[in-house]
Amino acid sequence: MPPFRFLPLAFAFTSATGAAAPDALPPANAFVHVEGRQLIDPAGNPLLLRGINLGNWLLPEGYMLDFKRTGSPQTIDTAVAELLGDLGAARFWHAWQQTYITEADIRFIKSTGANHVRLPFNWRLFITADYPHRMEGPGWALLDQAIAWCRNAGLYVLLDLHGAPDGQTGANIDDSRGRPLLFESDEAVDLTVALWEALAQRYRAETTIVGYDLLNEPVAHIFDKERYNPRLLELYERLVPAIRAIDPHHTIFLGGAQWNTNLAMLGAPIAPNLVYTFHTYWDPPQQSSIQRFLDVRDRYDVPLYLGESGENTDEWIGDFRRLLERQNIGWAFWPYKKLSKSSCFTTITPPDGWADIVAYTETPRGDYDQIRAALPPLETTRAIFAELLERIQLPATQINAGYLQALGFTAPASTP
What we know:
Oligomer: single chain
Largest sheet: 8 strands, parallel, barrel
Helix content: 25-40%
Number of helices: 13
């Protein structure tokens, strides 16, 4: 195999993005920025990020729907299309995107005392699947709306490319197909760079955005780190200057390989105004669990940010949050909302009959005979999904006071 190279390919991009005029760009001090190991807000004050991830909205994950074997957006969409038909599935996902997160959710998050949200998204909502690819899709309007809601509420937003073209993790969480093919494809790399360039062009003047989280949890631990970690570095070395050429002011967040746990592989910062972001779940809530990240911070004088943690008891979450704050590490726990479980701001109660939908996703469906044998009645299925769309909306969810209090937030008596 020849040496891996990032080569410019000829794509025909038509963009839905709007350019900010050079004279419309606010000054650098109007943006959150880095000074030493600290984020500084536009007023010149130290900023400790404390917030929550809007997971499952613009990149659904099966476990947050109580699914076990059906994990990625593609496999979830296949199951929903089998249950509702292609047109019915399209209508469902449109309604999901319009109702899973609304302005009421953003206001509620702000009311708890959070100061930002991390917003994960899938590339498929921003770039057409057909060739030649175009910068078109519902994601642009959805991001515009979410950012406007956050601006109005006084929340910062961290944009998180959770699923990059062809996948950066090789797992279900980035909607990939079993391998981190982003690092095996010049075409996927070019699409990733083009997407971040388009995002930077669109939002270069938006001071509500705290920064750009370039790749979520790249290179799962099961893959060859000797092969893929250098390719991740090469991609960062291309992405950062590409963004900076368009957007000189927004902070850029770089995650380490192996699920955002290997910050040492990043080395010294390749540019100013960078934050190193790590993720960790289930480790003991003690300093030894994060010492390797502190060592990188101390060696390179760079701020740290915990982009994800949680999925644990309230006691653990409270202990881990306090550990982070003692070390002046900003954080966003995971997630804001999901079905059944209480390790989130609000819990969605599954609709009546949802167990039948879950059971369908667990059955073998290798051919049409198996699909037909497993399918629940169509009208019943339609009613279940219609009820799910009602249950995911904030007023129908259950506030988890213990989770909010563990994060040091205020738990209102009821949802707005």
